[in-house]
Amino acid sequence: MSHIVVLGAGLGGTIMTCNLRNRPGSQHRISGRNRGRHYHFVPSRPWGAVGWRERRQVDLEPVFGRRDNALCPQGAERLDPAAKPA
Fold this sequence. Notes:
This protein has helices at residues 11-20, 45-49, 60-65; strands at 3-7, 29-33, 70-72. By secondary structure, the chain is of the alpha/beta class. A three-stranded parallel β-sheet has the order 1-2-3. Strand 1 (3-7), helix 1 (11-20) and strand 2 (29-33) form a beta-alpha-beta unit. The mean pLDDT is 83.
């Protein structure tokens, strides 16, 4: 079993993380790393300003959890493939 990590949970990263679960061999561990738990889609920001959405409605953890994926909201600072655990 592999651990697949998608960096970034914007539009592309969120879709990728969720769709990976639909692929054959979906027993793999899948997680997304993002700086923060909230989805930031710039065109939707006026929805919050006028009260059409609340902050909890753009929380990524429930979205990832519905597909048995993990969200790591602390983000990533660097990639170091040589330090990969055995």
